[in-house]
Design a protein that fits this description.
The complex is a heterodimer of chains A (about 350) and B (about 270). Chain A has about 350 residues and is α+β, with helices and mostly antiparallel strands. Chain A folds into 3 domains: about 1-230, P-loop containing nucleotide triphosphate hydrolases (Rossmann fold, 3-Layer(aba) Sandwich); about 245-280 and about 340-360, no CATH class; about 285-340, OB fold (Dihydrolipoamide Acetyltransferase, E2P) (Beta Barrel). Chain A has helices spanning about 1-10, 50-55, 100-110, 115-125, 145-155, 175-190, 200-205, 225-230, 235-240; strands spanning about 10-20, 25-35, 40, 65-70, 70-75, 85, 160-165, 195-200, 210-215, 220-225, 245-255, 255-260, 260-265, 275-280, 285-290, 295-305, 310-315, 320-325, 335-340, 345-350. In chain A, the strands form 4 sheets. In chain A, strands 6-7-8-3-9-10 form a 6-stranded mixed sheet, sandwiched between helices. Chain A has a 5-stranded antiparallel sheet with strand order 13-12-11-14-20. The longest helix of chain A has 18 residues, at about 175-190. Chain B has about 270 residues and is an all-alpha fold. In chain B, helix 3 (about 50-80) runs antiparallel to helix 9 and helix 8 packs across helix 9. The longest helix of chain B has about 35 residues, at about 50-80. The two termini of chain B are about 30 Å apart. Classes of the chains: A alpha+beta (about 350), B mainly alpha (about 270). The interface of A and B includes residues 57, 59, 80 and 154 of A.
């Protein structure tokens, strides 16, 4: 299984480090990306995700480490010689060229025939739902349309990998959701590897086969959307991916965690006796019960209507718990809080906040 | 206060110092000493001596503009590649001579280029033959290029600086090497700046007369010198005005032709 995985890898980053002005942006980062994968680098701004993408694109040279493309070292290869193309956040369409000329740019440099270029443009515009836009001026297009042209311009070159640097960041929410679906469809149709950078966790969860959560130049966790959401491996991931209740706890023995003096059953094992841990409970897993039931009793401090659910804050045991529910209790009432053993995630405390590497 | 009153000084200025003189020049140009209407002063541009001066002016202005482009473009590219701090200072140095009076600058060149001037003194020190460029078109060209070069560098520099770094990365990403990036991205996107530079250099070069007076020693006749002489020496204001109007029309037509493709671009069209 392990060797099969390796064979399918199209790109490998080995021990990449990079500093800008003495500040470490990437710290010994290693990452393998499989063929035809939709992989998302996710993290807050400054976590090194864009730098990673720019290293893959050839715009930034790493200080140490190497980039391997299908097993070949391309660390020093100029970006124009790499078989990858980028979709930039600000579209970066050439303003002095129309849609057709923008899309043809890469193909003309590759000295493709006129007929080939014409067919490719037609195909690419159809792919991004912009049939008949050949002669349009790029500056007259809307943000969403410009981004579609940028995608078409990259895809006609038939790159092995498409790099997308927060491509939807400049679009409004509704358009962003539409474009997410479009990108998934385009990915399926062209069948190439997508490496996507975003700070939007919802976007990452929606689109990716695999998510790489990064913080402070280090990979925090790698895995499928579901595994990252359901089983965050540290408090940072839990906090960054969706809202979470993150509480200090102690493990007195296997399958029991003690929070605020209350012993609660859970399913985690293998922790040292009495180990200090982070306990993560997702808001939708925290059930509001009548007073007297559940593990804690607290007072409802606020109720916010969120459309499909209510967001309820409950103050209990010195902690402001967040819960989601379709029923709204009155503010000020006393309620009980309950959580199923399965829905409790226990995590080791990071040794130091900065240096935490967790591999899947 | 209504905002339109703020334009009053400008309107007074335009009426008093642009519109009124233009009308007097036009009236003067289309009349003779008796006050009767005539085309003679306009048509006078085609007389051999005037035509010759006009063609000479055209040649000098073209040459000056071309040399300015050839000098300014690499300079602008070089300035752009500078780190920011030194960039500001370099541009300051470039603009500094413009704060000195223009006639003084030209007189300085007269001193440098004259027969026993600084240039020949230095050449003599190295045992080289002195150059006899004083009072020739070469001296005139040197003076003009020196004087107008900043007007070419600054707009080209601005246009190049405005080019988004992302566009250059995008071009590289699509397979363009450095030369292709220049040819397909930087150069076309700097065109509006270059056109502004062309206008700011060509028009004054075409119509100047002081530089030719000082560096040409009165031997070089630009169309500007002829017009000046009609006004100041021959006191024939009608002819001077007629030639001025003809020159102005020729320049305007030339500009309209140059910029016909560029009308919708921001900031470069002059009307």
């Amino acid at each position: 299984m392990e060797t099969n995985e390796k064979e399918r890898d199209i790109l490998e980053l080995r021990n990449i480090s990079k500093s800008f002005d003495g500040k470490k942006v990437l710290d010994d980062l290693s990452l393998s990306i499989g063929k035809n994968e939709f992989i998302t680098l996710l993290g807050p701004s400054g976590c090194g995700k864009s730098t990673t993408l720019r290293i893959i694109g050839g715009f930034v040279r790493p200080d140490s480490g190497s980039v391997l493309f299908e097993g070949k070292d391309i660390t020093g290869l100029a970006s124009e010689k790499r078989n990858v193309n980028t979709v930039f956040q600000k579209y970066s369409l050439f303003p002095h060229m129309n849609v057709e000329e923008n899309i043809a740019f890469g193909l003309k440099l590759k000295k493709k025939s006129k007929a080939y270029i014409r067919d490719k443009i037609k195909y690419a515009l159809k792919l991004v739902n912009l049939d008949g836009y050949e002669k349009r001026n790029t500056t007259a297009l809307s943000g969403g349309q410009q981004q579609r042209v940028a995608i078409a311009r990259a895809i006609v070159n038939e790159p092995e990998i498409l790099l997308l640097d927060e491509p939807l960041g400049a679009l409004d929410l509704k358009l962003r959701h539409d474009m997410q679906q479009e990108l998934i469809r385009i990915k399926k149709e062209v069948g190439i590897t997508f490496i996507y950078v975003t700070h939007d966790q919802e976007e990452a969860l929606t689109m990716s086969d695999k998510i790489v959560v990064m913080n402070k130049g280090i990979i925090q966790q790698m895995g499928t959307s579901k595994s990252i959401y359901d089983e965050p491996q540290n408090a940072f991931v839990a906090d960054f991916i969706g809202e979470s209740n993150i509480i200090n706890g102690v493990m007195p023995c296997d399958r029991v965690v003690e929070i605020f003096g209350v012993k609660i059953p859970c399913v985690d094992e293998g922790f040292a006796k009495g180990e200090q841990v982070d306990v993560v409970i997702r808001p939708e897993d925290l059930e509001i019960r009548p007073e007297g039931e559940g593990f804690f009793t607290g007072r409802v401090t606020s109720v916010l209507f969120k459309g499909a659910y209510y967001k309820i804050n409950v103050c209990a045991g010195d902690y402001e718990w967040v819960s989601q529910s379709v029923n709204a209790p009155e503010v000020g009432t006393r309620v009980g809080l309950y959580v199923l053993p399965d829905n409790i995630q226990i995590m080791h405390k990071p040794k130091s906040e900065d240096a935490e590497i967790i591999k899947e | 206060m209504k905002r339109k009153y703020l334009s009053t000084p400008y309107i007074i200025w335009v009426i008093g110092f642009t519109l009124f003189p233009l009308i007097t020049i036009a009236v003067s140009a289309f009349t003779n000493d008796d006050g009767a209407f005539t085309w003679d002063n306009i048509v006078a541009i085609s007389e051999p001596i005037n035509r010759q001066a006009l063609l000479f002016s055209l040649a000098i202005a073209f040459g000056c503009t071309l040399i300015c482009i050839l000098l300014a473009y690499p300079t602008a590219l070089f300035l752009k590649s500078f780190r920011f701090k030194r960039k500001g200072f370099t541009i300051f140095l470039l603009v500094l001579p413009m704060w000195m009076n223009f006639i003084l600058r030209i007189l300085a060149w007269q001193m440098i280029l004259s027969k026993n001037g600084i240039l020949n003194f230095i050449l003599g020190k190295f045992g080289l033959t002195p150059l006899a460029i004083s009072n020739t078109w070469i001296a005139l060209m040197i003076g003009m290029v020196y004087d107008f070069l900043p007007y070419m560098i600054l707009p080209i520099f601005n246009a190049i600086s405005d080019i988004d770094e992302d566009l250059i990365e995008a071009a590289r990403d699509l397979g363009a090497g450095s030369f292709t990036v220049f040819r397909k991205i930087i150069f076309p996107l700097s065109m509006p700046g270059m056109l502004s530079g062309v206008v700011m250099v060509f028009v004054p070069a075409m119509t100047s007369f002081v530089i030719a007076d000082i560096l040409g020693g009165g031997k070089l006749q630009l169309i500007g010198n002829i017009i000046e002489q009609e006004f100041m020496k021959s006191m024939n204001w009608h002819l001077g005005a007629g030639l001025s109007i003809s020159l102005m029309l020729l320049v305007l037509i030339g500009l309209a032709f140059t910029m016909r493709n560029d009308m919708e671009e921001k900031g470069t069209a002059i009307w």
